[in-house]
Specification:
The chain has about 240 residues and is of the alpha/beta class. It contains 8 helices and 12 strands. The chain has helices at about 10-25, 40-45, 60-70, 85-95, 105-120, 160-175, 180-190, 200-210, and strands at about 5-10, 30, 50-55, 75-80, 100, 135-140, 140-145, 150-155, 155, 180, 220-225, 230. Strands 2-1-3-4-5 form a 5-stranded parallel β-sheet, sandwiched between helices. It has a 4-stranded antiparallel β-sheet with strand order 6-7-8-9, with helices on one face. A 3-stranded antiparallel β-sheet has the order 10-12-11.
């Protein structure tokens, strides 16, 4: 099945360039130039991936993302022209899965597109109830179901973005083992860690907050200095 991509970008030249390039790689690609029309199109068309610029007429990209995230399960890549971390942080906080800096390098964008689609495709449909099995993990008060992208802590569902869920699942699936940043970038983002990208660190920080960890002295998802991150399997017992 051909995967569908919706590009929301007001620079028509860049939109055409990305659309033609991704179409040449076998994707079905459509475009939208206005932010105020984007939410309806995203929720109605339900593409497999949205590539979203942050500076848009009518409605900015962050507002678009916040409006659709609760009802849109597929991944979102944001495009940012800023050199600092502000746009990346804001986009990831709003539920984006990854980001690509402008000027866009087509082969870099393609690598990011392939990476998020590869790991999201099996997870897009949510069954009506969680099931025990090889695709689920339980740590006393914590239950994680991969196929449904569902997380329950103390019986209450925890709302995670797709990138946060992927990170939690990978760490939990390797519980008790320290996972390096290099491994996390290769597994979750599909590219090498460049020593500067803070995407994984930001996702860990947000994940700790949502999972009730102590952000100043985390005990559930620990930082092992100089090595990486550690999911502690026995830290999910009696509060």
């Amino acid at each position: 099945m051909t995967e569908k991509i919706l590009i929301v970008e007001d620079d028509t030249k860049l939109l055409t360039l990305i659309r033609e390039y991704l179409a040449s790689q076998g994707y079905e690609v459509t475009g939208e130039t206005r932010g105020d029309r984007a939410p309806d199109r995203i929720l109605t068309e339900e593409p497999d991936l949205v590539i979203l610029d942050l500076m848009l007429p009518g409605l900015d990209g962050l507002s678009v993302l916040r409006r659709v995230r609760a009802g849109f399960r597929a991944p979102v890549l944001i495009l940012t022209a800023r050199e600092d971390d502000m746009d990346q942080v804001a986009g990831l906080e709003a539920g984006a899965d990854d980001y690509v800096k402008k000027p866009v390098v087509p082969r870099v964008l393609l690598a990011r597109v392939r990476a998020v689609l590869r790991r999201k495709q099996p997870m897009l449909k949510m069954p009506s109830a969680p099931e025990e099995g090889p695709e689920s993990l339980r740590f006393e008060r914590l239950f994680i179901e991969k196929q449904a992208m569902r997380v329950r802590l103390d019986g209450k569902e925890v709302a995670l973005s797709t990138s946060e869920f992927d990170l939690l699942w990978y760490l939990a699936d390797n519980a008790g083992k320290t996972i390096s940043r290099e491994e996390l970038y290769l597994e979750l983002k599909g590219h090498d860690y460049d020593g500067l990208d803070r995407g994984i660190d930001l996702s860990v920080s947000r994940l700790r907050k949502k999972m009730g960890d102590d952000t100043r002295s985390p005990f559930r998802i620990k930082t092992v200095w100089g090595k990486g991150y550690l999911f502690v399997p026995d830290a999910w017992g009696t509060p």
